[in-house]
């Protein structure tokens, strides 16, 4: 058998991630590979750390880019902090909250599940009731931006409630980082993870992670060893530990980190608050156009994520056929429904570099064509 080089088609990525990667970030990816302990690479890693601190709005010393996707970021938070027998209150309002529950139970800990309807924010009253009923709970875990439904939850309030009840917070910011307001230090988040392929508009496969000093102390003072060697952040700390102190832990994805450095630079140049505002403005313009097409949102207006628009599939439209039509005729990818919303919803992503007016216009025109 003979094979040829793979040349992917050029798509417009308006699904739930990965989002569009700019030419600037792609060209950073193609720069010469150097050693992952080369002093120049180490210097760049220090900059990645500072730029991540900027994006997360934190001064947390332990702020790193984990060499693995968002799912590993999730697992890293749970496996480092949670021990067998611990009580963890987990908010579940979509697929990814469900994965948090899986993480907790696989560690032999007890998940107190607070269910909220799919397509809605986490219900604050129910969380308060769970905190009241479980004064011995050690952690409160929730997904800030539920990518499976397009709902944003009130992270600030949830963190305050956790602090008032002596719980540490574990927050999924895979889809929220860079797309909506997120303030790790001001809100007192203890452990947070994200992904590079959403509003950071970088290549997939890296997970920004940040732990507060309190969370670092919990990881360092456990009764039992951390079950995962690769995700043991107390070992990774030496690898990300600042210039001159770096020692080998694993071989970093060197070129992907060049790409992340470049995409974080772009976020900093734009200003994170401006990036939040751009996502909101593009969402509003998409929402206006969808209304004209008679297409309705699943999530109530004040709980909608600007970067992930979940809409009802119009009556009579064939889910798979419409998505294939968009791909074939417009090179445009939109997302299918996930979990409970499979076959019922489409997910239109406006994440990072994708959140531009020309993409909104293309998506609206293409949908109008596909539905007629
Ligand atoms: N959490 C949320 C909210 C997500 O949207 C995703 C991916 O879409 C993940 C976790 C998992 O990230 P990854 O696919 O990079 O492993």
TrEMBL record:
Residues annotated for substrate binding in this entry: 347
GO molecular function, one term: L-serine-pyruvate transaminase activity
GO BP term, example: glycine biosynthetic process, by transamination of glyoxylate
Modified residues (N6-(pyridoxal phosphate)lysine): 198
Residue ranges constituting the Aminotransferase class V domain according to the UniProt record: 33-337
Cofactor: pyridoxal 5'-phosphate
Keywords linked to the UniProt accession: Aminotransferase, Pyridoxal phosphate, Transferase
Homology family: Belongs to the class-V pyridoxal-phosphate-dependent aminotransferase family.
Protein name as it appears in the record: Alanine--glyoxylate aminotransferase family protein
Protein species of origin: Colwellia ponticola
Lineage start: Bacteria, Pseudomonadati, Pseudomonadota, Gammaproteobacteria, Alteromonadales
